[in-house]
Amino acid sequence: MTAHPRGEAPDPAAEDHEAGEDAAQAADTPGTPDDGDAGSAEGADGGAEGAQDPERVPGGPAAPAPSEAEAELAAQRELRERIEQRKAEKEGPIAAGTKLSGPAADLLAAVRAVESGEKPGTAFFDSPASAPAPRRTAPAAAPPAPAGPSRGPEQPAPAAASPGAAAAVAAVLAGGGAPEALARPAAATLGEGAAQALREDPWQLLSVPGVRPEQADGFARALLGAECGPDDERRTAALVGWLLERAALRGHTALDADEVRTALAAYAVTDPGEAVQHAVDEGVVLVFQDGVDATEPESPEEAEETFEDGTRGDDEPVRVLLGLDRYALAEESLADGLARLVNSCDKGADWTEAAAAAPSSSAGELIRAAAAAGLVAHSGGEAARAEPAALIAAAHGLGLRAVGTTHSADGRRRLEEAVGDAGSAVTLSALLSGEDGPGRDADGAFALDVLVVLDAPQLDVETAAMLVESLADGTRLVLSGDPGVLGSAGAGRVFADVIAARACPHVVSRTPDPGPIGELVSGIGIGELAQVDAPGREVVIVPVRDAGEAVHRTVQLVADSVPRAIGVPSSDTQVITVGHGGSAGTTALNAALKERLNPGPGRFGGFDPGDRVVHVPAPGRAVPGSVVSADAEGLRLDCAGTPVVVPQDRVETSVRHGWALSAHQAAGMRWPAAVVVLPGDAAQGLSRPWVYTAFSRGERHLSVVHGVDQALPRAVAEVPAQERTTRLRPLLEALPTPDAS
Question: Which of 27, 245, 558, 730 is in Cβ range 3.0-4.6 Å of 294 for a Cys bridge?
């Protein structure tokens, strides 16, 4: 890697950094900037730049309009309604072959028994299924999505609370000394009876996004007085649920019970074990057994027969997991659906000629694998995206209905170019919402024979479950992506679990990413930060001493050095940094870049026409765009040619200036040039996946504003991806292999 002197244009003759001593090891721990839960906090960070000021938006208050999130997430809401409907069914057994069966039916039976008092919660320790579920009826057709741009599969926003409910909640909050600003979100989260619910159980305030235990405790003390104590069962149950929700923000679909008990002790709970038991009995969380070999105990009682060291009578390690029902049911549903696709595929298809005509050997291997299997995993770097593109083209040539779906509009554009067909790609959000794509057949399934999902590491478990439920029997599903990038913003690790479970053929691309950037990123993927030759100044290191200098040099690079020396304009250069806060986070960098590139008073709630922004309609989805204007309806954006109107009351939480992004926001997108900023205070937020993701966003040029000394090579070598606790892998491992089916 090359560097250039401070204050000068990129120069290939500059120094490289070498390994040294006394550097702090970067740690991938929860709570660090842009870690596993950062994607879920994108767009909701306190102190975000450009806070909405209604007085600055012409036209006064916004006219009532349908919720943008609801418009985007109609299909997601349908899936959640089906899951809730399943949970609510209390009468009679579930017929085999319809709705839920196998482990999911057992799971629901356990929940019902606990709720009815028939059995204690500890009687149920679930384990993976031993056989795939029968074919399920195709889901009902999704309702037509309301007209409007920028739809997505993320979690829908809570329904707006009525003014009366919000007023009643505000009165209760005032009595407990809580801010009135929580009234509307509390009423939206807890429903029309929120005021009464909070009176009876003040700790339900913890279910409101952003509320922390100490705040809920203060509210409860003000309402309950002497009746309030740290071991109040209402408090401990709320804490257990809150811990699981926080874990989901870091990507976990379940947590080790010991970890939950340890966390409860830190919140002054006297008997954490009893608190966990109560939460299970109340149905706040579900309990599972996860043995090392994922074998199923002979009976629930056998699962309880463990020694103090966590082993059973046969010395087999036993791990008890706790999980929220929404993620448990999503993983069960996803495992069911993947098994259905594996077993319903026509494995006798002859695609020999199409494979022989493939542009590369890896593409031919992928085509042959897709011909013989209903589910295929494909991994590779940026250049390897040509292989799923070749598969889509080959499927078209065979007269099959095939489409590829991507994480971002930029990814869709690149896939369309690779296939050579403008209708061959669609973003995942547009596919699920019905805004774009092949549409659904009479049974509600996508009218497809082959679906290729690119950027598969960004697929969370709930979105994956909804996607698979929308595929008809016989549809071939290919999950393709780069295993080295950051994982999904939502809970789960679907792509990694599918590969690890070996539940389907896995095609590993042999197509390397070209050029110095490709060479550098390939080394990072195996834990090596190597020096690369960059004769065309493709890779440049810019050393800095502190955060102030990092901001200064970043602005200089974007506004002057990269356009002049590399030929990439500022509009095509993306800045990527570790987090939103800090002295050189996205907030500080965007303020400096706006002042240089598009100065203005911010008359539209902190934004001016021409400002480069990123719209975050829901956690985990970032849509780049630019500000056009503002009026009574809200802030008007141009997102890659698509007009987007953001209502005034959502501008503060869903729109940021976009010259600088976090790596999570940048995942799935690429730019001609990227400037990665690593100030000294970013060291603890670095990991190999973060560096891999950030460094691979530039197509022609990468500048690294480097102020973390040896923390960078140490992170690449020693800080792998943060492990996520999930149950999908053992569920898939319990299924018969494709060869045995």
Answer: 730
> Which string of DSSP letters, residue by residue, matches 320-345?
EEEE-HHHHHHHHHHHHHHHHHHHHS
Q: What angle do CA 12, 16, 17 make, to 5 degrees?
A: 160
List of E strands, 257-389? 286-289, 320-323, 375-379
Question: In the beta sheet, which residues pair with residue 288?
Answer: 126, 321
**Which one is predicted more confidently, 330 or 582?**
330
Residues in Cβ contact with 259 at an 8 Å cutoff, skipping those fewer than 6 apart: none
CA-CA distance, 525 to 529, in Å (whole number)? 9
CA–CA dist 382, 480 (Å, integer): 11
* pLDDT value of residue 315: 53
**In which residue are the tokens 């016989």 written?**
474
In this prediction the pTM is 0.77
Distance CA 90, CA 554 (A): 60
Q: Where are the alpha helices (DSSP H) in 250-305?
A: 257-266, 272-281, 300-304
Q: Which of 386, 450, 391 is nearest to 415 (CA)?
A: 386
User: Whole-angstrom distance between the N-terminal and C-terminal Cα of the chain?
Assistant: 50
Of residues 61 and 460, more confidence is placed in 460
DSSP state letters, 679-713: -GGGGGG--HHHHHHHHTSEEEEEEEEE-STTHHH
Helix, strand or coil, per DSSP, at residue 541:
strand
Q: What is the pLDDT of residues 521-565, one digit of tens each?
A: 999 999 999 999 999 999 999 999 999 999 999 999 999 999 999
- 498 token code pair: 């599918």
Q: Is 60 exceeded by the pLDDT of residue 592?
A: yes
* Range list of β-strands (E), 251-338: 255-256, 286-289, 320-323
Residue that is written with structure tokens 């539940």 in the block: 503
Q: Mean per-residue pLDDT for 237-266?
A: 96
pLDDT digits (tens, 9 = 90+) for 192-212: 999 999 999 999 999 998 899
